[in-house]
Amino acid sequence: MARVAIVTGGTRGIGEAISLALQEQGVLVAANYGGNDAKARAFSERTGIKSYKWDVSDYDACQKGVELVEAELGPVDIVVNNAGITRDGTILKMSYQDWKDVIDTNLGGCFNMAKATFPGMRARQWGRIVNIGSINGQAGQYGQVNYAAAKSGIHGFTKALAQEGAKAGVTVNAIAPGYIDTEMVAAVPQDVLAKIVAKVPVGRLGMAQEIARGVAFLCAEDAGFVTGSTLSINGGQHMY
Ligand SMILES: NC(=O)c1ccc[n+]([C@@H]2O[C@H](COP(=O)([O-])OP(=O)(O)OC[C@H]3O[C@@H](n4cnc5c(N)ncnc54)[C@H](OP(=O)(O)O)[C@@H]3O)[C@@H](O)[C@H]2O)c1
Predict the structure, then answer these.
(1) Which of 23, 81, 89, 207 has the most beta carbons within 10 angstroms of its beta carbon?
(2) The whole model's pTM is what?
(3) Could you tell me the distance, in angstroms and rounded to a whole number, from the CA of residue 183 to the centre of ligand 1?
């Protein structure tokens, strides 16, 4: 029987590439999204992958969302915590809400999804959890105390949960992407982006498919000895 995966934020950007890479690997994928119905509908029509709307920052919504996926597709073996947002600004300008929204979505979403799926994986003695962190969680970034804290938290969360899953066949890993050519990065002003690209040794933005390739590896049947690791995919921008 095919493995079942949930990819949060799986209908566009990096998440779309991850959904497709897992599908190509023979996995039955459920792509979660937060609010953009039009993109989700177009994605599902294009790929045949079912999309499911719920807010990953909402604990109860994650429980219910996972229940629905399990009823329709079967027990969840793989979770890719990819949903993420930015609310950038220096701390002088950042509101409490900007802080809370980013922490609750980017980091809280990982907790909520793990609470809904980890017990089942553990009981069935097989699971894969991949959390999408960021180079900015490793190195920090001006104007992103909320995002850097959430992503840095993801790296700690990954190493702690990996220890809890290890004896039960559940691996937990993170990927720390550098700057990838998606709508999130398109929102960065052109002059700022040019300065960022100038610091990437490979000399370009990354592609969503390059992150998806790493996720597909970490979710594979034969990746069971890889756990608690953070895979940097950043064009050499930050060698950690
Ligand atoms: N792009 C980069 O350069 C880069 C670099 C490092 C790390 N990352 C990380 O990689 C991940 C994907 O980034 P991206 O650039 O592909 O982002 P994106 O294009 O903005 O897509 C974000 C996805 O997350 C979903 N989402 C946002 N908030 C949600 C919520 N509360 N509940 C459920 N889904 C939610 C969105 O759903 P809707 O479509 O419904 O809005 C969308 O599918 C993020 O975690 C990001 O922090 C990105």
Answers:
(1) 81
(2) 0.98
(3) 9
